[in-house]
Amino acid sequence: MEQITQISQLLGTYGISAIIVVIFLWDYIANKKKNVENQETIKTTLAVVKETTTTISNCLIEMQQTNLNTAKSLELLQKQMESTDKKVDKLLEERRN
């Protein structure tokens, strides 16, 4: 009975402080768990972003190569058209004479 009285006195004296400490500890533990979960989410997101960046980089390299090929094709087409124009001009000149 004496122990119950002492516990009652301790709760009466330190009750509010103890409740505040318990709430603080509970909040600290809950936030710690959330921070760990958030860090895992951030790591996963960064891995996906890295993979996406690599994919985009590869696509840009392929687009660059395609653009170079298109430019080369257009140069060849232009040379062919100039050659054809010269041949047509030569044929027309021969017909006039």
> Order of helices and strands, N to C?
H
The proportion of residues in beta strands is under 5%
Summarize the main sheet: none
Q: What gyration radius follows from the Cα positions, in whole Å?
A: 41 Å
Task: Estimate the helix proportion, in percent.
Answer: over 70%
Q: Any low-confidence stretches, pLDDT <50, length ≥5?
A: none
| Amino- and carboxy-terminal Cα gap | 135 Å
- The overall average pLDDT, rounded, is 89
The backbone outline, from C-alpha atoms, is rod-shaped
How would you describe what is shown here?
The protein is built from one helix and no strands. It is an all-alpha fold and 97 residues long. The N and C termini lie far apart (135 Å).
How would you describe this structure in keywords?
97 residues; mainly alpha
Summarize the topology:
Blueprint: H1 2-96
What can be said about this structure in brief?
By secondary structure, this protein is mainly α.
